Amino acid sequence: MSATTSIGVRLENLLGTSRVILHDEELREYAVDGVMPGAIVQPTSAAEIVELVRFAASDGLSLIATGSRSKMDFGMPPARYDFAVDLRGLQQIAHYDAGDMTLSVDAGMPLRVLEKVLSEKQQFLPLAVPCYETSTVGGAVASGIDSVLRQQYGSVRDYLIGAEFIDGKGAFCKSGGRVVKNVSGYDLHKLLVGSLGTLGIITRLNFRTFPLPQVFGGFLAGFAEPREALVFRYSLENKGLPLANLELLNPEAVILTHRFLEKESQALPLDDEQGHWHVYASYEGSEALVQRISRELEELAREKDAIQGGELFSAVDAHLGGVLREAFDWLRWCAPSVALFRISLPQVSSADISRLQEIAAAAGLRSALFMRAACTIYFAVLAEQEHLSSIDALSKIAEEVFTIVDAKQGSAILLHAPQTLKQRMNVWGARRLDFPMMERVKCAFDPKNIFSPGRFVGGL
């Protein structure tokens, strides 16, 4: 009996044959950067996950927790991957108090299903993340991917008030609680955000919910130069308008976005001339508030000499919001080879934006750039071929991006890249000064290194 077969048999003894998958065709669907698990398990309770983790810890096995697997290419390839833990069997809403606006939900709950439940009480969770139609709550938190509503509602860390998870020793852990004002203990649950499942298996998450807005609005303004667009964007932020989303798009991003809108029989109100930079603002609330914000945006666009600008029709705005929410997903596949970075800087200047574009242009490659809340830039470099020469060019660009961002005391992550590029370089860039602390945290949560080994910063 092979080692893989032996693991499968023992997993079947734990969960039963109906919830353990050993067929190669299905195992390939759970592969991470080409590394395939030896088995897939489908638990339906936290208690079963405890047993699975204890089994892995006692036998020195590794596991990766999964949901819809829409963001499994984040991070580096796993160093080991013995079995996958599919959490989609955990879909219970354990607690929902619409009056207190608090929610406790299992990690495997699909976001779209949760949205329907909350909307019945005129509430919502601002986790507007890419791959929304299939993403699970736990996957959205573990991946750390940004919501397009971060401008107004903050990141998930701001409204995640508690969590339950299984650590690397198989212990059931709780952090935070079900109430917004909870001052007991440390906010350990916030360490789970963006951890890629390397600290523990999330089983349940507690959130603060928000009132569902009555009316929505969208505004688009065009500019000839990046400096002018950036000035307009910063002017909106300084004005303190309650904007749900605020994005700056370079000309290539505008073209790609427009193409995706056309597939939905919608179109942006663009001039025939190409090469303009655009700033998009979305806002929501009462009808009176939305109308007031629209007027102020119109006035500011005129003051800043926008080439074009105006409020969007509701249908166009709704579809545009969806396309921008999904940008991470479609950017990955809009060219044969794509290097997609998430860059965070203390402050973004027009020189920073121009420099990023120049790096790609010098290699003869197109680049799409989206600047979102908190000075976060999504920068995609698009190669039209999968040849070695394209990988060489993308590799050189990645090195330059990391160097520039480090010099600006920012951070950069290569969110998506061809596997051949990941074999050459670390998608997290150079090790950070706080890496020893990260190692200690990893060891405290996962002393035997069984959770997603090798995928996180510095090979954690």
- In terms of DSSP E residues, the strand content is 15-25%
Please give the order of strands in the largest beta sheet.
15-12-14-13-17-18-16-19
Q: What percentage of residues falls in helices of 4 or more residues?
A: 25-40%
Give the overall pLDDT as a whole number: 93
What class would the helix/strand composition place it in?
A: alpha+beta
How many strands appear in the DSSP assignment?
Answer: 19
What Rg is obtained from the alpha carbons, in whole angstroms?
23 Å
Shape: globular
Characterize the structure shown.
This protein is α+β, with helices and mostly antiparallel strands. The protein has 16 helices and 19 strands. It has helices at residues 3-15, 24-29, 46-59, 111-119, 137-143, 150-153, 156-159, 226-239, 251-263, 287-303, 314-325, 327-332, 350-362, 388-407, 419-422, 435-445, and strands at 20-21, 39-41, 63-66, 83-86, 93-97, 102-106, 123-124, 160-166, 172-176, 201-208, 210-211, 215-223, 243-249, 277-285, 308-311, 337-344, 366-372, 376-383, 411-416. The strands form four sheets. Strands 15-12-14-13-17-18-16-19 form an eight-stranded antiparallel β-sheet, sandwiched between helices. Strands 5-6-10-8-9 form a five-stranded antiparallel β-sheet. The two termini are 32 Å apart. The relative contact order is 0.12.
